[in-house]
Each structure stands twice: as C-alpha cells, then as structure tokens.
Amino acid sequence: MNSIKELFLLEPTMTYLNHGSFGACPRPVFEDYQNWQRKLENQPVQFLTEYLYPALKKSRLSLSDFVGCDEKEIVFFQNPTTAVTNIIYNLDLEPGDEILMTNHEYGALIRAWSEWAQKKNVTIIQQEIPIPVTTEENFIELFWKGVTPKTKVIFLSHITSSTALIFPVKKIIQKAKEQNILTIIDGAHVPAHIPLNIHDLGCDFYTGACHKWLCSPKGASFLFVKKEHQHWIKPVVYSWGKNGDDPGPTEFLQDFNWQGTRDMSAFLCLPTAIEFYKKEIKLKQQTCFDLIQNIHTEFRNTFNTDSISPGGKWLGQMVAHPLPKNTSSDLKEQLWSDYNIEIPIFERNGQSYIRISIQVYNTQKDIDLLMSALRTRI
Ligand SMILES: Cc1ncc(COP(=O)(O)O)c(C=O)c1O
Predict the structure, then answer these.
(1) Which of 11, 136, 239, 271 has the most CB atoms lying inside 10 A of its own CB?
(2) Separation of 80 CA from ligand 1 center, angstroms?
(3) 108 lines ligand 1 (CB under 6 A)
(4) What DSSP designation does 322 have?
(5) Ligand 1 centroid to 354 CA: how many Å?
(6) Which residue from 170, 219, 204 is spatially nearest to 90, judged by alpha carbons?
C-alpha cells in the first residue's frame, strides 16, 4: 500500500474512487475528533460551558483564513443542505419572484428550494446549460438568458455534483451585483479542492463542506454570510442565543452557535484538518489534477462517447463521462462485488454517467484497475 493511503482509515484492499461523495478522513484528524469527544464526555458541563466557545472560535479563525473571509462571517452547519435551507427560509420574496439556477444543481437542494418555492409562489428557473460545455463566455451568456426583472436570487454550484464541472461563478456574481440580485454559491466540493477566496468572489452567501476534500470527519460544513446580511439571517432552529447566557461577540454568532445540545467535535477538528491538508495533500494535488485530465481523454477513447467538457479548467479532481448506451444497469454493483472498486454511476436525463474522484491516496494503479475492469464489462 502507498504510504499516504496508510494515513487514511479506508479499508486497505478497496479501490476508493468516490472521494467526491463522502471524503475519507485521515487518522490524525480522526484522532483529534475522538479527543474532542472524550473531552466532552469527561466533563460535559465544563466542556459545553467553558471550553466549547473558545474552541469554536479557533476553528472559525482557521477556516475563515483558509477560505478567505472574516471569522465573524462563518457559522458551522453539519452539511450544505442545512446551511442552504437556513438561507432559503429567511428570504422575503413576493409571489412571482424568481430564483435562477442551472440544470446542473444538486438534486437534494433543488428539492429544498422547490418545497419552499411552492408554498411562497416563487418560481424556480433551472436555466439549461447544455453539455458539452464549451467556453466560460458561452456559459455566462447562456446562463444570463435566464435573468429577468423578477430574478431576485441566483443559486449556483461552484463545482457541480453529477457533472463534476467547475463553473465560472466569479463573473456571474459580478454581473448579479450590478443588478442587485443576491448570490448564494453552493461550494460543497470546493474547500481544499480548488483555491477559494470568498471575499474575492464577492458573493452574498457561500456554503462549503469540510468533510469532502478537506477530509474532516463527517458533519462539518459552513455557511458564510456577508456582514451586511447578518441582521436578517436568523437560525431556522432557535435556541439559547442572545436571550441566554451563551457568549458570543455578535448577535449573529450567538444565535447560530447554540442550536440545542449537539456534538460539535467535527467542527472543532478543522484546524487539524487544515494542517493535515497543508502538510500532506496540497503539494500532491497537482498530480491528481494531471491524472484527471488524462482520465478525461481515456474515458472518451474507451467508451467512444463524447466528453461533457473540453477538460482543462472545467475540471479539478473529478470527471464525469457518459457511458455507452448498452452498458449493463448493474455495472456499479459489478465493479464493487468483482473488483472491490467504489465508484458512482448514475442517470441524468436518461443517460448513464460514471464519475471518478482522484484524491492523493489514489494512484495510476487504481486507474488501471478501473479501466481494465470497464473494458471487460462494457
Ligand atoms: C453540489 C453539491 N451541493 C450540496 C451537497 C450537499 O450534500 P449534503 O448536504 O447532503 O451533504 C453535495 C453533496 O454531495 C453536492 O455535491
């Protein structure tokens, strides 16, 4: 086994090519996680009333530095779904107002938006971005066709889930600002995957998962709320906050920090996860990007189907590709049961796709095993 793989808790004989869905956690980060849990159980009252808040602040400081914003603009959530939902339920829109997104957004969040929009008579526009995508300019032009005088919010993935594409969000945010349209960016796949500076992007809201590419234990995500919006963004789950005695430098942080008794250990080990990323992952990431560009070509040659992007800057550490029409419907199960390969295969608009993720513990050997299995089974 390669030495970096030994640092992760993954079952050693498995070929794990799905870091994008649920990232793997390295041993030092998991140990830190368990240490926090032990501290909590050792003296629960002291931990929750004295130690927790300074530790949360330390985590916010290190995460905000990592993602390019202020410590007081970040609140922790277990996952991006709960973070985005908290924004959705604070929006004060009129019937007939429109939320603009693409047809590449994450299914669970389209559902979250739709449930709310139906009750409010707000319209969700999923602007079609056809594949293959071509150029950034073409993307922006197509997307902007969805903007009308009723567009009040743009909700956009920074890296999409099923199509695994990096979208040019910065230019969209700039255009939205000129027209007073709020921007909510779904960066679930972004932290520790591609460079992120939220202030530089200029969006109003941003969510990211830390348990994907930053390799924290599951249940660590964040919501960035620009300072000017903090007075109207309230927690969906109200608990002790400014009416209790929980310390907090701002009403915003006070209101969000305490949402009933819960285990916040996954939030508390973010400084260790960031340290691990800087020491063990960052310098090896270029190899992963290079491997993905090669796989992009190899998928096309192996399956004889068209790529969904020209590659290059549309891709990070993941690539999705359409499978041939006659592909067996249980290919995913075959790869798992016969080759011990974990990789997602899914349908989108009646077409099957395979999506590969390459993290630093993956090697060319993993890719060779996958490609030879695919050649045998397709
Ligand atoms: C683009 C995107 N947004 C959001 C999510 C968040 O999912 P969850 O909140 O279920 O962790 C994911 C998960 O993979 C995703 O790919």
Answers:
(1) 271
(2) 6
(3) yes
(4) E
(5) 17
(6) 204
First to last CA, the chain: 28
Cα distance between residue 83 and residue 68, in whole Å = 18
Q: Which CATH number fits domain 3-27+282-377: 3.30.70.260, 1.10.10.10, 3.90.1600.10, 3.90.1150.10?
A: 3.90.1150.10
Closest residue by Cα to atom 12, ligand 1, is 188
Amino acid at 357: S
Q: Which stretches does DSSP call E strand in 70-150?
A: 74-77, 98-102, 123-127
Task: Say whether pTM exceeds 0.90.
Answer: yes
- CATH number (1.20.210.10, 3.40.640.10, 3.40.50.2000, 3.20.20.70) of 32-277 reads 3.40.640.10
Who contacts 18 (Cβ-Cβ below 8 Å, separation ≥6)? 342, 343, 344, 355, 357
pLDDT tens, position by position, 66-108: 999 999 999 999 999 999 999 999 999 999 999 999 999 999 9
42 residue type, one letter: N
Nearest CA to ligand 1 atom 11: 79
Cβ-based neighbours of 109, under 8 Å, separated by 6 or more: 80, 81, 84, 155, 186
Domain boundaries in the chain? 3-27+282-377, 32-277
Per-residue model confidence as pLDDT tens digits over 323-363? 999 999 999 999 999 999 999 999 999 999 999 999 999 99
**Which three-class secondary structure state does DSSP give residue 182?**
strand
Here the tokens at position 89 are 């339920």
Instruction: Report how far residue 353's alpha carbon sits from residue 214's, in angstroms, rounded to the nearest whole number.
Output: 25
Measured from the Cα of 157, ligand 1's closest atom is: 1
